[in-house]
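Open question from group meeting: does this chain pack into something compact, or does most of it stay loose? Before anyone orders reagents, we agreed to write out a predicted structure and look at it together. Recording both the input and the output here so the notebook holds the full record.
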Amino acid sequence: MIAEDDSSNFMYFDALLHSKYRILWAKNGQEAVDMALENDVDVVLMDYKMPVLTGMEATRIIKEKKPGLKVVVQTAFAMFEFRQQAMSVGADEFLTKPVSCDTLIETIEKMISER
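Structure tokens returned:
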């Protein structure tokens, strides 16, 4: 599942992943929580800044309800505090945009294999 409010960022991730994975798109943090809880999702690619619920709030709720579900937080903000906050709410990995195709696929494959 891709939790991303920016359609151009979603299209980028979708273009990289749609041939290999079934993609669900959550456009805000609340949709991300709802979709993650209602669907059989392997990995959530969560944007740090999301409307309605922030990506951090959504990650915390998802990890409380489904602790085994892997959440990869991604953001354009590369500051250490953002990574630290993401990990403190339960994120399994943290990526900085722009994310290369190889890094994205390697990270998703790693998360799936650990699940």
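Observations to bring back to the group:
The helical segments are 7-17, 29-38, 55-65, 80-88, 101-114.
Residues 2-114 form a domain with the Rossmann fold fold (CATH 3.40.50.2300).
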